[in-house]
């Protein structure tokens, strides 16, 4: 305690002052970086749905990377855009220095940017990319994520590789075509649309013909995917030669349906592919219950969001002192195709 402040105080007053001072310090432990202010920058984050398999992984990485360097709040918007906007208002009111936003609806980016701009706060979007016009409307708006098209292309490459290696077993009717069903993510979601389009285009460009038996949304949800797969198995049965899913959560739901019908027992097999390379799926690939997936790098996406947020909160350039490179206003974390041959990379 500063001696000048001690002078003139009685012992009781000193004790009271010391108690108050200690209490304040304890209360600020989570926001203390040892600097002059004793406060860490506050990062206000929201995720569109905390029980989404991939987003839960990103959230863990946000929390891990923020530990000791930022005061991080992560809210679950429960797939409700209005709720997310209210959460953002609360974060701004509580003194957030930067917003990290996984949008419920990418079309809401303009509204989020208006809120951030009014409060003169930087905003780092992640996982769901706003459109170009929204990003250009604010010089303090950035994005961390992937190139949507790339996930579809790489998934198509995984399917092509696996089909060519197993064609004699998997081409049930011997026509040389892949008869497939597709479980899509959320309609209109950039990743869902890109994965649906470019996976098939990539297969066709490799010289493999395809025939779509059915396509429908599973809304990124395992239980909904199980319901879709149940219905398709009842309708198409052995006509299905490949199950293509926009994410691993839905792939696990499809596999649950297939297992009920005796698949993955003995010689009865159905190739299934997804996207994300979540731990559950890595285990299924190891057990030969999954043909492959595409690594959506939650570890590096979470790290990049925190790195950019910290720099922006501290008035620095977004990628200063990091290994990240901006492409326009975005940090792109690449996808990687995963099969049993390179599981260690996913792990």
From TrEMBL:
Gene Ontology MF terms in the entry: carbohydrate binding; metal ion binding
Locations listed in the record: Cell envelope
Protein's UniProt keywords contain Transmembrane: no
Domain Periplasmic binding protein: 43-317
A single Gene Ontology CC term: outer membrane-bounded periplasmic space
InterPro entries membership: Bact_Solute-Bind_Prot2 (IPR050555), MglB-like_PBP1 (IPR044085), Peripla_BP_I (IPR028082), SBP_2_dom (IPR025997)
Cross-referenced Pfam families: Peripla_BP_4
Entry annotated with the keyword Cell cycle: no
Superkingdom as given in the UniProt entry: Bacteria
Signal peptide range in chain numbering: 1-22
NCBIfam families noted in UniProt: PRK15395.1
Oligomeric and partner information: The ABC transporter complex is composed of one ATP-binding protein (MglA), two transmembrane proteins (MglC) and a solute-binding protein (MglB).
Protein name, entry field: D-galactose/methyl-galactoside binding periplasmic protein MglB
